Amino acid sequence: MSQNADLQRRREAAVARGVGHATQRYAVRALNAEIWDADGRRYIDFAGGIGVLNTGHRHPGVMAAIRRQLEGFIHSCFQVMPYEPYIALAEKLNAAAPIAGPVKSLFVTTGAEAVENAVKIARAHTRRPGVIAFSGGFHGRTMLGMALTGKVAPYKLGFGPFPADIYHARFPHDYHGVSVTDALADIAQLFKYDIEPARVAAILIEPVQGEGGFTVAPVEFLHALRHLCDEHGIVLIADEVQSGFARTGKMFAMEHYDVQADLITVAKSIGGGLPLAGVVGRADIMDAPAVGGLGGTYGGNPVACAAALAVFEAIEKEGLLARSAAIGERIRSSVGALQSDPTLGIGEIRGLGGMTAFELIVPGTSNSPDAEAAKALTARAADLGLILLSCGVYANTIRVLVPITVEDAILDEGLTLLAQALREIRR
């Protein structure tokens, strides 16, 4: 029996069924954009730990920062005995955030925690309960995170009831027939039929949806949301858990817009592979909760903070913003060449910078989602040595989250395998 098969047998006996897997291949080592399984087979990683590894597996600078911090201390709890790495990281994040005026930060452990804390902060600031989120949005697997998430299967199945005062409008996406006007009309209807604006604490949006399919928010939509928030005293929260830290060719996706959020949630690639998340925002809003109202035992762990400071350094010194933009162009060009073959069934190609995705549609149709093809493509890609993820409201979108530090030759090899896998499943 292979080591992968043996580990799968042990996993089925010991681990809860509800934890899903993209593959049944078990990682044992990795470097940059390559990863090896328990049977010794090499794969090119186009998943990046679901957007956690923008700076790659085991980036040398991140590894060195981790080792230095391990020689000092691993944990003290910032609320018990605080430490400099947390403060230094807050200073770095505050300076980088595309928010004018005094800015402050908070660190926690997961993206879901970051979102929940952003909502807590918005509610403390406004003294209001309501939150508006959007279809296709993904904001975590906690109860509030699930309530905010705009997709039922598999995230909400069997877990209700969910927290109250959460409302959804459609996310604008012309390709699927939802215009900016439609989405704004949904919010107007919420204000008319469900909750008055004076009871809304926050509007929460991913500028580029992650699990929703890398759908990019139109510029005019974010401008309209900013106007609504200013008009009604609502906090605008940008969820950048997946789109942040150079993924889109900017440090934050919000930098592609002439619009500022009040609060931004961060996680995933901020820690270079270690669990770390946070909220950064306007100081007057961030300071609304009472002392003791924010925190967490592991929040802002010193080793993770040291890793995050090294991530910032790598992005700056290695030119990873420009690299992300170049990688995105390369991916879109490669997939665009395949799109010209109608038998392959490639629909819309979209994204910002290195945050790129494409839809698989039934060949011969203009826009009929083909979820089975997406499932088959990720499986065949893995057989060929490429780790690839699907996503999207219709489960037919293929997203590419390859580390931005990937070598050109490895990226080209991965794109060749993607094309081969697609051609093979469409035979």
From TrEMBL:
Cofactor(s) demanded: pyridoxal 5'-phosphate
GO biological process terms held by the UniProt record: gamma-aminobutyric acid metabolic process
One MF annotation (Gene Ontology) recorded for this entry: identical protein binding
Secretion signal, residue range per the UniProt entry: none
Keywords, alphabetical: Aminotransferase, Pyridoxal phosphate, Transferase
CDD domains: OAT_like
NCBIfam families: GABAtrnsam (TIGR00700)
PANTHER family xref list: AMINOTRANSFERASE CLASS III (PTHR11986), LEUCINE_METHIONINE RACEMASE (PTHR11986:SF58)
Family assignment from sequence similarity: Belongs to the class-III pyridoxal-phosphate-dependent aminotransferase family.
Protein name stated in the entry: 4-aminobutyrate aminotransferase
Organism of derivation: Arenimonas oryziterrae DSM 21050 = YC6267
